[in-house]
Amino acid sequence: MRYKMLLWPHANARYQSETLKLAEAELRLMLDKLCPQAEISPAVALDMPGLDLSFPEAPDEGVIAALRRHSLLYGLFEDRDGLLAPVAGRARAKVGADLPAILKYKGKTNEMFLQLLVNAGLYAGDFFAQADQPLSLLDPMCGRATCLFVAANMGWDATGADVDKNDLKEAEKFFKRYLEYHRMKHGVARASRTLKKGSAPECRFEYAPQGDAPRRTLSLLQLDAARGEALGRNAFHLVACDLPYGVRHDAQLPQGMRPGGNWLESLLRQALPHWRDALKPGGTVALSFNAQSFKPDRLRALLSDAGFQVMTGGPWDGFSHWVEQAITRDIAVGRK
């Protein structure tokens, strides 16, 4: 059976040219787990971005549900001799489709790319068949929590940590206003997690998403990524993190920690063992990074040194893409 997958258009023309490659790589790693016999090719007959899919038989509900969570899906259609019959649109957001997009700030990562990053981690691990259940995600450098909001819309529990208390405060204020505006039942609790030296303040939301979904949690921790002992052990199904790109951040570092990449490598050497401890067996860490300041082979070597099984080959080597003049973004994924 043949299908056409129309892709979400992107306002940036340069990035739009990269979406077909990214969409195909993401789709391939999903279907490698769900339906390896499926074939994928560019939808050349359309004057819009899309992919052609061919299945040996009609895909089951699990495959359709996975395709609805694809980061760049605009619409899925069955191709009946050139006539397109609608099959599915994007998966319904559990909290609000606009939740990850509203808060604007310098250096924000696009929410659709973060969905791609989450999917890359999810389909490298053992929990992809449970994606519609309340999994637990950790973003250990969460900034203003865009990745956490992506996870919340998937119906997951989300925990974010960051050293910048101002970013955390902005995320907290925004999420509280969002829940209040949409009249979702919620509570906010404050606590702290014990460190070997000192403590990590925590703000924890418990809220009821739209519909009849069970209550979920979203937590914000003020915590240096190198001090991950507060994250616990075997607590998360997935770690997803958009690492600092070494453009804005390098300018804020002491002279001895530059040029770009060295300080981040030092930080990851300390942090990755903590992130691995925090993952459940079969869980994964998915990291996006600037390949101009941190070479992919070097990051994958760090993941391997920390005890992760590193994903390489096939679609895993197809995520490198242009963002701007100083940034070529890529993804590295490791499995516990």
What is the global morphology?
globular
Q: How far from one another are the termini?
A: 36 Å
Mean pLDDT across all amino acids: 91
| CATH fold label of the largest domain | Rossmann fold
Poorly predicted regions:
248-261
Order of helices and strands: EHEEHEEHHEHEHEEEEHEHEEE
Count up the helices.
8
Which labels suit this protein?
336 residues, alpha+beta, Alpha-Beta Plaits, Rossmann fold, 2 domains, 10-stranded mixed beta sheet, 5-stranded antiparallel beta sheet, 8 helices, 29% helix
Q: What's the quick description here?
A:
By secondary structure, the chain is of the alpha+beta class. Helices cover about 30% and strands about 30% of the residues.
Write the layout of secondary structure elements.
Layout: E1 2-7, H1 13-34, E2 39-42, E3 50-54, H2 61-68, E4 73-80, E5 83-88, H3 99-102, H4 111-122, E6 136-139, H5 146-153, E7 157-162, H6 165-181, E8 186-194, E9 199-207, E10 216-222, E11 236-242, H7 262-278, E12 279-290, H8 296-305, E13 309-310, E14 321-324, E15 327-335
Parallel strand pairs: 6-7, 6-11, 7-10, 11-12
Antiparallel strand pairs: 1-3, 1-4, 2-3, 4-5, 8-9, 9-10, 12-15, 13-15, 14-15
Could you describe the 3D structure shown?
The structure is a single chain. The protein has 336 residues and is an alpha+beta fold. It has 2 domains: 2-88, Alpha-Beta Plaits, CATH 3.30.70; 99-335, Rossmann fold (3-Layer(aba) Sandwich), CATH 3.40.50.150. It is 29% helix and 29% strand. It is built from 8 helices and 15 strands. Strands 6, 7, 8, 9, 10, 11, 12, 13, 14 and 15 form a 10-stranded mixed sheet that branches. A 5-stranded antiparallel sheet has the order 2-3-1-4-5. β2 and β3 (50-54) form a beta hairpin. It starts with a strand and ends with a strand. Residues 248-261 have low confidence and may be disordered.
